Amino acid sequence: MTAAPANRLHSGTAPTLALYERIKDYIQRKIQDGSWPPGHRLPSEQDLVDEFGTSRMTVNRALRELVEKGRIVRVVGVGSFVAEDKPQSTLLQIANIASEIRQRGHDYRCELQLAERIAVPPDIGAWLDLRPGESVFHIVCLHLENDVPVQLEDRYVNPRMAPGFLGQDFTAMPPSEYLVRNVPCDQIEHVVDAALPSPDQAMRLAMPPSEPCLLLMRRTWNRGSAVTLVRFLHPSSRYRLGCRFPVSGNQHFG
Q: Which domains does the chain show, CATH number per domain?
């Protein structure tokens, strides 16, 4: 009996798929069925070349596309590994990113990159109900999980609502936590969008400028007065946003 060619060993894959797609499908099925858990080291490129009877260029394309989808990570000189599940932050409340990261057993760090009191830009003034000529607090923070940037925070705060804001040590207590503790809000608005980072944002987040991001914009109010406007930028391969909530019997969704 003759041995089947290596690239036919995985008969569950549709034969019409291009070979690099078959390799991707094979790896993804191993991840989905739990055979290869997060952190598992994949076969080497050469092993996959031998197994599928193809070129290194084809294997490289399959691995590269899996990296772009966030399914695997590649470490130069070490190998490819199944990616950890992306952390998820809720949309129904103000998340404390420091607590979320620490609850996963990971190290959290906040880098304050900018803190200033400036004349309010017209667009920010409109969002925060500040008049031309008034000032606004502005900070930029980078939040890191195990020293990997996962969130870039660009925040404006109404000085009338939080006069002591700039005097805080945000490396010890993140801005969101400080505001929740000191200026409780009774209204929250969340808007999520997809965005490409600017060159400066990509540099701060240590990511390629071509990689898409999740952009969460939040506004909060206290008794009708605007408190803060903040934009959170997350590399889509490292973070996700979602929520789960109860639905009462008289609500209808389609």
A: 14-82 (1.10.10.10), 88-241 (3.40.1410.10)
Tokens of 46: 């050469």
d(CA 233, CA 147): 17
Question: Does 92 have pLDDT greater than 70?
Answer: no
Calpha distance 183→218 (Å, rounded): 15
Of 182, 124, 191, 132, nearest to 158 by C-alpha is 124
CA distance 248 to 141: 38
What's the whole-model pTM score?
A: 0.64
Structure tokens that stand for 233 in this block: 């930028």
- Phi then psi dihedrals of residue 7, to 5 deg: -80, 5
**pLDDT tens readout for residues 47-65:** 999 999 999 999 999 999 8
**Phi/psi zone of residue 53: left (φ > 0), alpha (ψ -120 to 50 degrees), beta?**
left
16 phi, psi to nearest 5 deg: -80, -10
